[in-house]
Amino acid sequence: MASNQFSSGDAIADRRADYARMLAESGDNAAAAELIEQALELAPSWAAGWVKLGDYCQKAGQREKAIAAYETVDRLDPEGIFAASLKLAVLGAAETPEQPPSAYVEGLFDDYADRFETSLVEKLEYSVPQKLAALIETARPASGQFACIVDIGCGTGLLGMELHAWTQRLEGFDISTNMLAKAEEKAIYHHLAQADLSLPADTSGLFADGLVPHRADLVAAADVMMYLGSLETVMPLVNALLSPAGVFAFSVEDAGAGDGFVLQPSLRYAHSETYVRGLLASAGLKIIDIQKTTIRKDAGKPLSGILFLAGKAA
What CATH superfamily is the domain 2-95? Predict the structure, then answer.
């Protein structure tokens, strides 16, 4: 839709936006905000421009102007592509959404796909696939082979690369078609499809194309929960996938003490151990092992996470 284009549609407004970006990159966010405001006078329905204004004002310490800009985005962008609801919540101007807009998550990873592995592995020292695989190895069947592994939020297939030799069938699901295309290039998945894990199981896409329930003796999710917020809908979905003796392995960002989840300035969610334990128990899943570890770097600092391994209770 026109209001969500990354170009304003006005050449002069776009030129001023480019100058504003250069000012912001040089550290002068206040001047960048003034210039993007001039661009928005020419293109007042340009949602992406209002996002830029909000971001520049926030970095310049102009909180109220940032809030007003994001509120405008929220009106212009009903699908939530620009995640204004999350940005307002981080600023304390709105309630924390239980889940991010699906359109935002899909767009984020569609845009990120080409540079995902270089950025995450080489620059941020991302280690969850290897650490989660080591945890999963402790629960491998006596035969050494899982009959079916379902990799939810598979991304480009980093976790799949660690697990594919341990299974007769590997399925991958992700909200981003561009990420799925990258996963397909690895030629390790027997089935790849788009799915929205924020939806109930019957509408998520996990059971389309004749895929039967309770087919997985391992469901794995590496760095997925931080893009889901509330996990109330995830546990029933996992239960619908798991076979009677199935296990569930996944990671979260560690929210520390408390009982719940929190939205971080990164626009990712962190979850407390207490919160996850409670949801697993309510879903009839018994914890096999928990490991607290560094999962990547964030702004140059180690980011703490928790790895969980759980199985269906007898």
Answer: Tetratricopeptide repeat domain (1.25.40.10)
